[in-house]
Specification:
About 30% of the residues are buried. Helix 10 runs parallel beside helix 12. About 25% of the residues lie in helices and about 35% in strands. The protein has twelve helices and 25 strands. The chain has five domains: about 20-60; about 70-165, Trypsin-like serine proteases (Thrombin, subunit H), CATH 2.40.10.10; about 190-270, Trypsin-like serine proteases (Thrombin, subunit H), CATH 2.40.10.10; about 285-375, Roll (Pdz3 Domain), CATH 2.30.42; about 380-470, Pdz3 Domain, CATH 2.30.42.10. Strand 14 and strand 15 (about 305-310) form a beta hairpin. The strands form six sheets. It has a six-stranded antiparallel β-barrel with strand order 1-2-3-6-5-4. A six-stranded antiparallel beta barrel has the order 7-8-9-12-11-10. The termini are far apart. It is α+β, with helices and mostly antiparallel strands. The radius of gyration is 35 Å and the shape is globular.
């Protein structure tokens, strides 16, 4: 039978016409091409899968998120050892009992252990104040095994935080911890406690964040004086105090502080927000150099940012604003809030200090003139704002020596010779501290004063407590 043919499309524009043998040949060729393509894809998938398997075999499955977080944070965590001199102050029977030895005897020094976290590359370490308070010697062991002497800089009992400085080699830099964002906490997230439990050395324990605002006392179940401690079931034991509580990013979310003695597996840490606020308060030109600056830098941010500015302070008068990023102070690049504070204190006696900040994408140059605190925060400031004159007696308090007849203090019933013991529930330890408390109040605010006055009954004189509210002018 003759082959059936189709006319070529080249002639009339219709579809090309092929013979059955040509059609079968093309079909065979198409199937073969399809099989080859499918084989190529299979080979490619196998290669990719094989490479993935090979890569998976090479990767260590043990290096999970916890291990990686520890690797990032552990170089910033240190072990702290302290030595405290001990003396015995005896009485007469002690003296005779000890065969005529002196009344005051030197005893073997008491040693203790704790933990800390490096927060600045220049070797500044944050820890709990109860770890180093009263110590005559402080030694720090780094994660690489080196032991370096440290000196306490400053601390605050109300928040149980202290700042140390490592006495390393000149110019030596240390690995600083990265601060987590304030309040960036997830209830139930994995957290890791790093520290020196029982003085055994660097230790790691894992748990979850059990509470973001715990107030239960670690000793007796009473309310804590510090608010919003973090609670975790990660093992925190004696010696862990001052160590790091981190998240899976390796970021510092808290400073370990206490463990609940009753029950098991409940530890507490000071949240990083409170840590930053305390550091910003205790490491300032005011505390380090007795110079009034009036602004606070946020710790853990590089370069530092301004977190607060006092009204009518040198910082506000110079034009510094909350949220400014501080780039340079005295023409020196600022690496941290500690470096910024030290530069301010060091340059203050040379006149106005040049400061370069970034605000809204623009750089601004300002001049800040720091003032000695005593030249501003004094008895004159208190007189101008409350209408009374005081003299500070370290043993008695603030003795009122004069009261303006038509002033706000007289209107509140305050009289001469009364003694001010407290201002707004605070007990100032100097004239500067008292004047600062008064300066912080706005015109028209009421200041609460805790007073004592003498009351005579016959031959007896007693001190009677009293309270008064004085309107600030």
């Amino acid at each position: 039978m003759p082959a059936i043919r189709y006319e070529s499309s080249k002639m009339n524009g219709r579809a090309p016409r092929l013979s059955l043998s040509e059609m079968n040949l093309n079909k065979t060729t198409h199937n073969e091409a399809f099989r080859r393509t499918r084989l190529q894809w299979a080979v490619l998938v196998c290669c990719l899968f094989g490479a993935g398997v090979a890569q998976g075999i090479e990767a260590d499955v043990r290096r999970d998120a916890t291990v990686q977080a520890v690797e990032r944070a552990l170089p910033s965590v240190v072990n702290i050892g302290t030595r405290t001199k001990q003396q015995r102050h005896g009485y007469a029977y002690d003296w005779f009992r000890d065969n005529w030895r002196p009344y005051v005897q030197e005893l073997p020094p008491e040693e203790s252990a704790g933990s800390g976290v490096i927060i600045d590359e220049d070797g500044y370490v944050v820890t709990n104040i109860h770890v180093v308070e009263g110590a005559h010697e402080v030694w720090v062991k780094l994660s690489d095994g080196r032991i370096i002497k440290a000196k306490p800089i400053i601390g605050l009992r109300s928040t149980d935080l202290a700042l140390l400085q490592l006495e390393g080699n000149p110019g030596e830099k240390f690995k600083a911890a990265k601060f987590a964002t304030d309040d960036d906490l997830l209830l139930g997230e994995t957290v890791i406690a790093l520290g020196n439990p029982f003085g055994l050395g660097g230790s790691v324990s894992r748990g979850i964040l059990s509470s973001k605002s715990r107030r239960a006392s670690p000793d007796s179940g009473e309310q804590l004086s510090e608010a919003d401690w973090l609670q975790t079931d990660a093992a925190i034991n004696p010696g862990n105090s001052g160590g790091a509580l981190i998240n899976l990013r390796g970021e510092l979310i808290g400073i370990n502080v206490a463990v609940l003695k009753v029950g098991q597996g409940i530890g507490f840490a000071i949240p990083i927000k409170r840590v930053a606020e305390t550091l910003a308060e205790i490491f300032t030109p005011e505390t380090m150099g007795k110079l009034w600056f009036g602004a606070r830098f946020r710790p853990g941010v590089f370069p530092p940012q301004v977190m607060a500015v006092e009204s009518s302070s040198p910082a506000e008068i110079a034009g510094l604003r909350k949220g400014d990023t501080v780039l340079r102070i005295n023409n020196t690049e600022t690496r941290s809030f500690i470096a910024a504070t030290r530069e301010l204190v060091g340059a203050a006696d040379k006149g106005p200090v040049p400061v370069t900040v970034r605000r809204g994408g623009e750089q601004k140059n300002i001049q800040v003139r720091l003032a000695p605190e005593a030249s501003f925060f004094n008895a004159e400031l208190i007189r101008r704002r409350l209408g009374l004159t005081v003299e500070f007696n370290r043993n008695a308090g603030f003795v009122i020596t004069d009261v303006e007849p038509d002033g706000p203090a007289a209107s509140a019933g305050i009289k001469r010779d009364m003694i001010i013991l407290g201002i707004d529930s605070m007990i100032p330890g100097s004239m500067v501290e008292a004047a600062k408390l008064i300066h912080a109040r706005s015109k028209g605010d009421k200041v609460k004063l805790d007073l004592r006055f003498q009351q005579r009954r016959g031959p007896f004189v007693s001190l009677v407590p009293a309270k008064a509210e004085v309107v600030v002018k």
